[in-house]
Amino acid sequence: MPPAFDPVRDAVRNSPVTPSADVASYNPYESHSTTSSPTTPVMLSPSLGRRSTHISALLNDDSPPNNQQQSATSLSRLLHPSQGPTRPQSGMNAHESIDLTFDDSEAPTPVATSPTPAQSRQTASHSRQNPVPPPTKTSRTPYNPRKRLTAPGSVLKPMTPEEMQMYKSYVGVGAARLRKRKREPSLEVEELDDRPSKRPKDVQAVISHYNARPDVGVAQRQNSPIYGLKSFNNWVKSVLITRFAHPALKQGIRSGYYSGKVLDMGCGKGGDFTKWGKARIRELVAVDIAGVSVEQAQARWNQGRRNSREATFGVLDCYVDSLAKAIPTAVLSMPFDVVSMQFCMHYAFETETKARCMLDNVSRWLRPGGVFLGTIPNAEQLVNNLNALPEDAEETSFGNTVYKIRFENQRIGKGAYGHKYWFYLTDAVDDVPEYLVFWDNFVQLASEYGLEPVYHAEFHQVFSQHQDEQEFKQLLERMKVVDADGTSSMDEDQWDAANIYVAFAFEKRSR
């Protein structure tokens, strides 16, 4: 029985060579008579020539199965041709030997020597005492594929750098076919491609604007031509947070929910972080569509010595994608006490789909009893100012030295979404597209997400309601909205610009 298949052993033992034509028909498995004429030369191995690299030659073993000795084609013999004649092979008389000589001009030719009479008698005696069983004939199919993808010479050749780079990005035919399949309809909101070329033009304009805005320090902000207006807007936000966010944060302790957790949607560069620090929050989640602004907000948070409080930041379009796309599930496992959207919610009212996605992100992770607060332009006032323009006006715009609003059309059509205008505010907003938020429609839509309004007031009304309260009166002076004598730091145009905004607060109904 032939020995078990051993690829390593057979590859070394049968390191192949290119056979010559005169031995192409030689069959080593045919039994050879021990009584053959000693003068008849026996061809036992092919002529040695150039080593083959064909894979079929590597896998096909034509040496006798019972060959336990080193053959003429062994690796050792090829590497050390000067060691002399090889050992006798199986099926050959012991007194016969092969003399292999190598010449540069032609392949070596094996030469058989005639044995002496004494050697013949010794061999015959040895054969009678130790008969060699004939080898078992086995049916073997040589490895010789017909439909191969690569040439035989390419086997075991290292790939070039170009080939390696190609296979790194290679996509097979099967994967390409899968990509061509039509996606199943999904109930989730359509994901928005992160590449700028795939974003809507208006969205990219907003992102580019806020990313380009510099993050200046406190001293430089005081040099702004509308510093009084910015301070007043911050004061209104402080009133909202104090009146509605502080009680919600305290209520979280009594109701057993995780207390002090705030979601700042549209965080910008982190302008409200100081307000949240004074509210003694324990955890902040801040997201914004402008990636540069988020990086600057995170740097501001880290520099504010608030490392004892947890904070998570994410770049996300909250009007298109779920909050879970940018914020880890573990962070969202506990609900928020407060969700804040300051001067950014109006971008969602381009379409009803965006507005619903925004409200879903607000309500889904807001605990019952939690509050949703924010600031938006006053759509009713903007429409009234538009309608007050003469019918023959060349431009559908209005404003003053501080701000300017320009509508696409002279009259507002039907529908609650997609009413676009361009807004310009000195040293703040550089003519970016915004959308009207009609209050009654907003309230009705929010009710479908379990949100009920608890506060709605124009900025001048907020001022009238809280300017005489001791806490907020002192805050007006500290924030330099007014001086010690009560004189406002804003001129008439800045007051006019402030009055186009409203503040609101909603509470999520208990289940």
From TrEMBL:
Recorded hits in SUPFAM superfamilies, A to Z, give: S-adenosyl-L-methionine-dependent methyltransferases
E.C. numbers: 2.1.1.56
Q: Which Pfam families match?
A: mRNA_G-N7_MeTrfase (PF03291)
For region Disordered, the annotated ranges are: 1-156, 179-201
Question: Residue spans with biased composition (Low complexity)?
Answer: 28-47, 107-118
Do the record's keywords include Transferase? yes
Q: Which reaction does it catalyse?
A: a 5'-end (5'-triphosphoguanosine)-ribonucleoside in mRNA + S-adenosyl-L-methionine = a 5'-end (N(7)-methyl 5'-triphosphoguanosine)-ribonucleoside in mRNA + S-adenosyl-L-homocysteine
> What superkingdom does the record give?
Eukaryota
> Looking at the UniProt record for this protein, which Gene Ontology cellular component terms does it annotate, in alphabetical order?
nucleus
List UniProt keywords, sorted A-Z: Methyltransferase, mRNA capping, mRNA processing, RNA-binding, S-adenosyl-L-methionine, Transferase
Start and end residues of each MRNA cap 0 methyltransferase domain: 224-509
Q: Residue spans with biased composition (Polar residues)?
A: 63-76, 83-92, 119-130
MF terms (GO), sorted A to Z: mRNA 5'-cap (guanine-N7-)-methyltransferase activity; RNA binding
What is the purpose of this protein? Responsible for methylating the 5'-cap structure of mRNAs.
Protein name according to UniProt: mRNA cap guanine-N(7) methyltransferase
Q: Which organism is it from?
A: Pterulicium gracile
Q: What lineage, starting at the top, does this entry show? A: Eukaryota, Fungi, Dikarya, Basidiomycota, Agaricomycotina
